[in-house]
Amino acid sequence: MPQVKRNKRGILHSAPIYIFLILVSLPIVIAYLWLFASSFSSKLTLGIFPKGLTLNNWRFLWSEIKLGLTAFESIWPVTLNSILLAGSITILEVIISLLAGFALSRMDFPGKDLIMKTTIILHAFPGVALLIALFYVLNFINLLDSIMGVVLVKVALELPMATWMIKGFFDEIPWELEWAAYIDGCNKFQLWYKVILPQIKPGISAVAIFAFLAGWSEFIYSYTFLFSSEHYTLAVFLKNLIGDFRFLDYGLLAAAGLFYLIPVIVFFLISQKSLMKINFGGIKG
Amino acid sequence: MRVILRDITKKFGTFVAVDNLNLNIHDGEFVALLGPSGCGKSTTLLMLAGIYKPDKGKIIFGNKNVTHELPKDRNVGMCFQNYALYPHMTVFENIAFPLKLRKMPRDIIEKKVNQIARKFHLDSLLNRRPSEISGGQQQRVALARALVKEPKILLLDEPLSNLDSGLRISMRAEIKKLQKDLGITTVFVTHDQTEALSMCDKIAVMNKGTLQDFDTPEKLYSQPKNQFIAEFIGNPPMNFLDVVCIREGDKVYLKGTSFKIELPERAKREFAQIQNGEKVILGIRPENLKLTSEGQNTVKGEIYVVEPLGRDKLVNVKIGTNRIKVIAPQDYNGNMGENVFVRLDMDKIHLFSSEDGNSLRMSA
Question: Is B82 an interface residue toward A (CB < 8 Å)?
Fold first, then answer.
């Protein structure tokens, strides 16, 4: 009995907190609800209640679409571009941050402190401020209007964070573990592959997840450095859908937005566990 | 296997971790490297393992110079203070790892791992991860992993310091028994003199990178070569009093601030080299002191505090500015602030030079 009483009081006690939290998160929930509802209906009443179920908004999946005077290409090559962009960023970032993180954590060399400090500054630097300079650089090395150009820019800007993250994981591996592996008979490669790598798996997946998500949602560099429509990514495609306000089709935009969102949600569901393990090595004494 | 360290020096930058170390360890001997933290004992062990390379000197296993051999070619087993088990492997995989690296056939690996697991009572834990077993069990896994490859030399780096005190005492006996059963040459690093005294055949006492002495526990305890060894070995530690040696005719006295005691014949012979008027340090262990009434050759002091230890009592006595510890019987009932007289067992005294701390005993 007292148990029940306490529970009741507990609920009464926490009710204001719950109400507050619900109120605060309502706008976001409504936004997603709107996105979902409007993508499947021809009309919405009172904002979020759909009227007239239709799949017409999803027509971009199987046919070309025309809005006003502009015709849009099929979404599939654009999706492929996005996957190529995000995938390349992920692979490059993981490889480079693994090597750099190992060096910064395990090796002693002159200028190490300086490198670590400057990487942090580099991360704090707003990338947008570099747009024009980057444009010149890319133009100079002939990587303008090429997905690889955007990949390089993005990797360069994301790398400091990724390196620090990986370094944190390396820092947590005790030296004794390496020594034990050597004494047990490992050579350098076996040590790396059989002992070190399994310890930093969560770190690798964390960096990979962040890199992929950053690449997938990348907009400003793709929009600035890619001109030809065959290089468009999904983010740019979406922006162009909004393009001309006179002909804006909200149903279509919602459906395309949802389409853009699906991989991210799926990715999150798969990788949640690894993401939880990130601690940036911040509490090491 | 016999292990010889010859003129070993190891520096880290300008810091000399080990300075010109010479050790001669016989086959099957259980040797402790004992010293305070930072004395170079772990560095020495890691050089034996092949993790560190000495800057100077030779390491010889058996008849082979292994100074430049990689750890994997030295056939040593090592057990670390934090056990250093591979977190991503099960207990079975941990123990099997050294064998797998030697490309042994699977069925032999399985047989050997099961065999050693039974010996260390790990049979029921083989499928668990290191994080899922207790500290004591982790340590047994670490020992099993070190021994499964049947090494010629076993290196133990403070293997007991992460265990709770009850387990530590039982593991002390277990490891000693194991070492004797296997007859494997073992080097054991510790900062705990009780462990070293109770487990090892011989102890190498180190301080600030240099070897102080390498001898049996009994010898180190009864005839310490210098004040550092005297203070470091034995618990509670040896007492020290500043005295002046006075020779009057045939007799030799030690004079302190408030006392004057005569040396008996044997001590006189042992410490014959001391000059008249020389300042020396008198060392005496708490168990060689006795609280008595006033009499010849006693030292007057005041009880500072009494610590009952169960089996006996440890009485802290203030003598002038020095404070000494005396072991008294359990039923001793002196109180704080009372005056007492301390009788020294003069056959058990040690005298050290006040200049370099070396023992002034003739045979030393």
Answer: yes
Does B364 fall in a domain? no
What span, in angstroms and rounded, lies between the C-alpha atoms of A160 and A229? 31
- Cα–Cα distance measured from residue B6 to residue B23, given in angstroms and rounded to the nearest whole number: 7
Enclosing domain of residue B173? 3-224
φ, ψ of residue B331 to 5 degrees: the values are -90, 10
What is the arithmetic mean of pLDDT over A85-108? 91
**Terminal-to-terminal C-alpha distance of chain B:** 30
| Whether B299 contacts B259, CB under 8 Å | yes
Residues B59 and B196 in one domain: yes
User: Does any domain span residue A283?
Assistant: no
Nearest Cα residue in chain B from A202: B88
Q: Are residues B216 and B244 in the same domain?
A: no
Shared domain for B106 and B250, answered yes or no, is: no
Alpha-carbon distance B205 to B185, whole Å?
A: 18
pLDDT confidence of A45, banded at 50, 70, 90? low
- One domain for residues B141 and B246: no
Helix A112-124 with A147-171: angle, nearest 10 deg? 130
pLDDT over 90 at A251, yes or no:
no
Do A179 and A233 fall within a single domain? Answer: yes
Mean of all residue pLDDT scores within chain A: 83
Domain total in chain B: 2
Nearest CA to B197 among B312, B34, B38, B348? B34
Residue B25 lies in a domain: yes
Q: Residue A261: give the domain boundaries.
A: 67-276
Total number of domains constituting chain A = 2
Name the stretches of chain B with pLDDT < 50.
Answer: 364
Residue A285 forms part of a structural domain:
no
B98 to chain A, minimum CA–CA distance in Å?
Answer: 5
Burial A204-228, CB ≥16 within 10 A → b, else e: bbbbbbbbbbbbbebeebbbbbbee
Q: Are B208 and B317 in the same domain?
A: no
Cα dihedral B87, B88, B92, B93, rounded to 10, equals -120
Is B49 close to A183, i.e. CB distance below 8 A? yes
Cβ–Cβ below 8 Å for A174 and B46: no
Of B173, B198, B224, the position where a domain reaches its end is B224
Q: With respect to residue B362, please indicate whether it lies within any of the assigned structural domains.
A: no
- What are the pLDDT digits (tens) for B199-244? 999 999 999 989 999 999 999 999 899 999 999 998 888 999 989 9
Task: Tell me the shortest Cα–Cα distance from B77 to chain A, in angstroms.
Answer: 7
Residue in B61, B76, B78 to test binding to A, most A beta-carbons within 10 Å: B78
pLDDT average, residue stretch A216-226 = 88
